[in-house]
């Protein structure tokens, strides 16, 4: 479920954007998505890298931009 401020779980993000969880984490790990802008840790919510919250609109906009520019490498 989405929070009021736009931050969502990885599960919600992958289902909403129809991308694979492994691909999402690849984009996190290779620097395609940036800490603070696209994903973040929140006290009391984040217990590991797998529980980061994701900013739905920022991720969607960034991936669309990269895809349009031909810079997005999907797996």
Average residue pLDDT: 88
* Backbone CA Rg: 12 Å
Strand fraction: 5-15%
- For the largest sheet, list the strands in their spatial order: 1-3-2
Helicity, as a percent range: 40-55%
Q: How far is the first residue's CA from the last residue's CA? A: 26 Å
Q: Total helix count?
A: 3
Tell the overall outline: globular
**Structural class of the helices, strands and pairings?**
mainly alpha
Low-confidence stretches: none
Number of strands: 3
- What letter string, H or E per element, gives the SSE order? EHHEEH
Main β-sheet: number of strands, strand sense, barrel status? 3 strands, antiparallel
Structure explained in plain terms:
The protein has 75 residues and is mainly alpha-helical. Helix content is 40%, strand content 9%. It contains three helices and three strands, in the order βααββα. It has helices spanning 10-17, 21-29, 56-68; strands spanning 7-8, 39-40, 53-55. The mean pLDDT is 88.
Q: Which structural traits does this protein have?
A:
75 residues, globular, 3 strands, mainly alpha, 3-stranded antiparallel sheet, single chain
Tell me the layout of helices and strands.
Layout: E1 7-8, H1 10-17, H2 21-29, E2 39-40, E3 53-55, H3 56-68
